[in-house]
Amino acid sequence: MTTRRSARLVAKTAETTVAVLPALKVATKASKVTKERIRKPKGKTSDVTAVSRAASSTATTTTTVVAVAPLSSFPFPSLATPQVMEDALRHLKAADPKLGKFIDKTVERCEMALDRDQDGHTSYISLCQSIIYQQLAGKAAAAILLRFLKQYGTLKDESKADLLAASGAGLDSGDFVFPTPQQVAAIDTEELKNVGLGQRKAEYLKEVANKFNDGTLSDEKLAKMSDSEAAAALVAIRGIGPWTADMFLMFHLKRTNILPTLDLAVRKAMCHHFGVPFGKKTPTHEALVEMGQIWEPYRSVATWYMWRLSGTITQKS
């Protein structure tokens, strides 16, 4: 269960720096991992200090100046914009040469999109689907979503009404218009459980619907919020924690500088990438943020590649 403390901590560190940042000095051989980087420091040195020393241990070589590309879109840059994505990749390759090599050999192109996303999906639909998919395998969640849409959605093509009236075979979620916030808010919680939702998920779904139905949240309001403001607004809703908020910011709002430090795969991949030991309680959130500073203001894209990297890490690695 997510604590309010961790929610506030993640919301605080999620804020995107929109202004053009000053030039950064980075080591041209930053990918080298020395024994000093992973040796446990003596005394009561903090995790952040240890990581800082680890990062700086490679900085004694010749350095180059990397100018951060401007984030030019209003009100916030979007990774759906090809130029922003190109700027992000260019910056990451220059700032982190080791990551740059991995980017170059990764066949799949970075795209901030989920398989269940469809054109025209609103923030409300995205959040509802996130709740349905929480802690479930993809196929199981997709089946529940389809049952939900068959029961409460509207067919986009009326010619398929006979299919729906029969068994519904041959239909998928893309065939339906998602029910409105007003409609979902009016559905009884017990009734929602009939499509496969648990008690809590049914309640969470109604809470999201209520927030959009009463105007507390909207596409327009969320689009104008900074990363930290949006994260705070989302985690205030029961059923949405920092990880879900981070995924929404990355994949729906397409924000550039999100680092989901609660994501286990990202944590492991970052430790592997930076040569830092991984443990149950380490590295801390602060240490991960310290490590990820080299990627700013494009931590979202670096995170996408950390997910890809996590799939290549073996037990011996």
From TrEMBL:
Superkingdom as given in the UniProt entry: Eukaryota
GO biological process, one term: base-excision repair, AP site formation
Keywords, in A-Z order: DNA damage, DNA repair
Keyword DNA-binding among UniProt keywords: no
Gene3D superfamilies registered for this protein in UniProt: 1.10.1670.40, Hypothetical protein, domain 2
Record Pfam families: HhH-GPD
Record SUPFAM superfamilies: DNA-glycosylase
Gene Ontology MF annotations: alkylated DNA binding; DNA-3-methyladenine glycosylase activity; DNA-7-methylguanine glycosylase activity
Signal peptide stretch: none
Gene Ontology cellular-component terms listed: nucleus; protein-DNA complex
Residue stretches making up the HhH-GPD domain: 132-311
Family: Belongs to the alkylbase DNA glycosidase AlkA family.
Protein name per its UniProtKB record: HhH-GPD domain-containing protein
Organism: Coemansia aciculifera
